[in-house]
Design goal:
The chain is mostly helical. The chain has helices at residues 10-23, 27-54, 67-77.
Length: 79
Amino acid sequence: MVRTQIYLTEEEKNALSALSVQFGKKQSELIREAVDNLIARHSKNRHQKILDRVAGMWKNRDDLPDLEELKKDWDREFV
């Protein structure tokens, strides 16, 4: 782990202290959980944005084979 220093307002510090007591966890542990949640949330958003960007990229292409015809051919081969 890497040690780092952060600045909290009095209100944030008091709320963090109360949560620490409530959950029986160290304040540093709660901060790490919050950072992990933030990273996970933004990673999902980034992943979704990439998927949204590529969605439909094959739409309206006329140089690709007809999938339905390919499936019919495959089905006939296995009968």
